[in-house]
Design brief:
18% strand
Length: 294
Amino acid sequence: MTYSEHSFWSDPKGYATALTDLPTTPDALPDALEEFLIHHAAARAMGFGVPDYAETDRSLRSVARLLHTAFGRDPRSLMQHRDLPHYLYGTCHDFSLIAASVLRSAGWEVRLRVGFVDYLKPGYWEDHWVCEYRAEGEWRLLDGQLGRRARDGFGIAFDPADVPRSGFLSGPEMWLALRSGEVDPDRCGVSFAGIAGAWFAGSNVLKDLAALTVVEVLPWDFWGPSRVFCESQAVDSESAVRLDQLAAALTPAPDSLEDALAISDRFPWAKPTDRVWSFFDGRLHQQAVRPETP
């Protein structure tokens, strides 16, 4: 397998033809995605809120399930603007996963990256998932969530298909920055949910490793030591040392899937499991990483 092939989660399955309506270049994708997908926190901030029937959208896990839901609300082409009640209510993970699906279908090498960005809230490193795609021999960052309206709202001046590296720190990079004292752990997390701390960055080290090995979990999935991090909201000294070693191995990020898998094999304790602990409704629930086909 390579980064240009679909993962279990990015495979559109029966919606492959419908997906071809979307543009297949990174620069055009954010504006297109914004016509049928909205971040649930943005919907709440707008005052519209999230309809009860859409509260589970952000837990659908796969592109096939996301598109099954989208077309159930509006059967028209994805290029046709929806009214808000017919939108999908997802997260940055869903913008990135659908973007990866479109680009992989078109033959691009793409992988999800898990980390933090400094351009969504001034003075804060916000938990965020982006796409990394290979163009002209180098990896570039695509933020699929930054459509035209989002760019205007956040005052974004850069190209969302070429996010500045200075504005994104991967989970491993953030962990090392916290350990060296470069970043305040209280300024790193999910601001709108009141989540912050080194424990959260530590869990993102594992999630970024999973994404680099094309296991595309949800933002609130935990396994192995990260489940303990979530429950205790702390990282014990032994786990911190192990995270130091893993983060160093992932910085800079491996260039190929083969390299990423080799690093994963060196750290078996960090590999995602078939069943994970997913945090919602205020507690952890055990779930299968691979959902049933819709």
